[in-house]
């Protein structure tokens, strides 16, 4: 027996919210891919694999899309089992999201500290034998983000790469990169700003995108859980009187 009255409206809203939730899951999947493409090239520079976060986001997006399927099917078929499964899975994902958000907030300062430490370590390993991955990643970072060194181009003076020379920086620091342009450079011809602040801003900008979509998805989750529980109760009541 199909639900009637207000329950019918809730059924429709639950379906709509789950369709939006499905789009939100796809959105998270897309954002995860975007973030992975943006920071994946720099993974060799860090002991903390920030790129893992983007993989987790992609996985969560895919899981959310699957869970929304249970919600849509449960609403259309008015199936209490499907709706119950949807509610339980949604509650589990919501709990994990809250835990992840709290942990991210608690360890936010540690991320900044570790990022600085990792960039300093990478600077010291630049150009060393067996550190080709670090060298290429640091070159790419400096070239793409238009920066040089960690705090500034003078950082290179303290590295084995320059052997203490004040007139050498990697070619990737040059505004117009060409072979040996970093030797006997002029400040006007190189990027002088450090990469730490640039990389930190890159991470923060990506987190802002993730956070904005995450808040929107969380609101839809809460409303979907409320509607699913109300609909389960209505289906049970109408079954009792059928």
UniProtKB/TrEMBL annotation:
Localisation: Membrane
Residue intervals passing through the bilayer: 12-35, 55-76, 83-107, 207-232
Keyword tags: Membrane, Transmembrane, Transmembrane helix
Pfam families referenced in this protein's UniProt entry, alphabetically: Tetraspanin
UniProt topology in membrane: Multi-pass membrane protein
Regions annotated as coiled coil: none
Main location: membrane
InterPro entries: Tetraspanin/Peripherin, Tetraspanin_animals, Tetraspanin_EC2_sf
Family: Belongs to the tetraspanin (TM4SF) family.
Name this protein carries in UniProt: Tetraspanin
Provenance organism: Porites lobata
């Amino acid at each position: 027996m199909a639900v009637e009255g207000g329950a019918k409206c809730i059924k429709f809203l639950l379906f709509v919210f789950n369709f939006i939730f499905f789009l939100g899951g796809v959105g998270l999947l897309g954002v995860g891919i975007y973030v992975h493409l943006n920071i994946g090239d720099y993974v060799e520079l860090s002991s903390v694999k920030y790129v893992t976060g983007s993989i987790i986001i992609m996985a969560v997006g895919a899981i959310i899309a699957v869970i929304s399927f249970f919600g849509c099917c449960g609403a259309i078929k008015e199936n209490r089992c499907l709706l119950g499964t949807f509610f339980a899975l949604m509650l589990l994902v919501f709990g994990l999201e809250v835990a992840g958000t709290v942990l991210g907030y608690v360890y936010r300062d540690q991320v900044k500290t570790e990022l600085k430490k990792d960039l300093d370590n990478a600077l010291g390993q630049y150009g060393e034998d067996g550190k080709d991955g670090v060298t290429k990643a640091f070159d790419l970072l400096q070239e793409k983000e238009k920066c040089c060194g960690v705090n500034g181009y003078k950082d290179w003076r303290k590295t084995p790469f320059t052997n203490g020379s004040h007139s050498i920086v990697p070619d990737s620091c040059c505004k117009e990169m060409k072979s040996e342009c970093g030797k006997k450079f002029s400040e006007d011809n190189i990027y002088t700003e450090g990469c730490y602040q640039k990389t930190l801003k890159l991470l923060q900008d990506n987190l802002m995108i993730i956070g904005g979509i995450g808040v929107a998805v969380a609101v839809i989750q809460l409303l979907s859980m409320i509607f699913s529980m109300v609909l389960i109760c209505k289906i049970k009541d109408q079954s009792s009187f059928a």
